[in-house]
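Entry under discussion copied across for reference:
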Amino acid sequence: MAYLQSTIITGSQNVLNVAGSGSVSNTSISSVNGNNGRLFEVTDDLSNSLFSVNTIAGLPVIEAFADNTVKLGKYNAGVAAVNILSSGNVVVGTPGIYSDYKLEVSGALSVSNGELYVNANSTIASSLYGIGQLLTSATEQPTVYLESTWNTSGNARGIEYKVTNTASGASSKLLNLFVDFVTMCNVSKTGNMYIAGTLTQASTKTIKENIAPISNALSLVMQIQGVTYDKKDGTAINEPGFIAEDMYTIIPSLVSLNTAGDPEGVKYNNLIAYLVEAIKEQQQQIDELKSLLIK
């Protein structure tokens, strides 16, 4: 074995040519050692590591293998930070069930001041791929747009997330669910929700217990004060509704609380049950009065 110490090699061609016989498995052809460990090594091997660049402690940060795989970055629990598989696919972190895709990220993915764009089309209905963008700039907040093309006619299903452009002031939907480019549901940046169909809540008795009829509904409904109001942030003007704090003193079960335990929202849909029972009670009173008049 030959050692080069404090040697400068110059020249225009064939500056340094090191050849190994390949007759001995796992033979080091060329290596560079530091004070604390091996920094660089090329190995003549048909099954293991062929090339590595190491830290001063001798730990690999770049390593190429005979099976066409490459590992990059610091190892954690025996797994490199970035893994290039023999298929050419790239895995960041621990390979999982999606390692057959071109890119897999194990953990959170963040894109700032740039664009993440994925374009894939499929004619198979069960393969929902498509267009995805994540944009950030000085005038546009993060945007996510996912579109799934599921047949050759261009019909699509997808989800988009957008906010207002701060430069133009143009209003955008916060969340939009669409089918065939027709909005099925969206939530605006002001918190308003739109649905194209019917809102249905699960209500089967198979998921309920302690079922009991509502009593004194008319008396309770008579105490509820309907109001109109303007929102302080300007998103609603002359809006009809109820005050959560007032409702909480009458029918607490119709009010949602915040983390501090204070009234925050009103369950408007659940109020219907009280209104139905109140109408029935009122109708009973009307029927009783009718019967008295007939007598």
User: Anything to note?
Assistant: The CA atoms of residues 5 and 68 lie 33 Å apart. The chain has a mean pLDDT of 74.
